[in-house]
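Deliverable D2.4 — example input (structure tokens):
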């Protein structure tokens, strides 16, 4: 399995992502738009490949605009969304995960401004993340508010490990 992980990282030219895992930007639209949220100019659409391996997490973070997660390969992905009140869990499963067709859920959507976190449920998970208007690190933030951290901790489960 490690050979496959190493091959993905090397072939795609992935590098460590600040939130955890590995990534490489695969697409950035040449069309430029004004964000309806902050009026800053952004690419119309961006897309990355994102890889999480066993034990890695995508820390709680948010982006300004809607993000679509698509699973491509590997174990199911546990995708968490926090709207300020409760955590919703989504499980993205690809056909390579050895499941029946009725269990397949190829994508999940995180609305802009919602906190999100993720982890692979196995050895690795390769996903794609598309953001529109396009992703910019200026629009990216981690949970830093102590009240929000306390809310997540109070919800129990293992949600606090994603801090």
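Example output (designed residues):
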């Amino acid at each position: 399995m490690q050979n496959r992980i190493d091959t993905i990282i090397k072939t795609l030219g992935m590098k460590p992502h600040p939130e955890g895992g590995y990534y490489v930007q695969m697409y950035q639209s040449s069309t430029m738009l004004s964000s309806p949220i902050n009026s800053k100019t952004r690419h119309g659409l961006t897309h990355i490949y994102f890889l999480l391996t066993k034990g890695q997490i995508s820390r709680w973070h948010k982006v300004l605009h809607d993000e679509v997660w698509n699973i491509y390969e590997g174990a199911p992905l546990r995708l968490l969304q926090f709207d300020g009140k409760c955590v919703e869990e989504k499980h993205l499963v690809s056909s390579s995960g050895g499941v029946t067709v009725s269990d397949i859920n190829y994508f999940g959507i995180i609305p802009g401004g919602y906190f999100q976190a993720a982890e692979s449920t196995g050895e690795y998970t390769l996903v794609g993340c598309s953001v529109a208007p396009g992703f910019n690190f200026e629009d990216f933030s981690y949970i830093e508010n102590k009240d929000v951290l306390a809310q997540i901790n109070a919800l129990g489960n293992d949600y606090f490990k994603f801090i």
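The helical segments are 2-12, 146-154.
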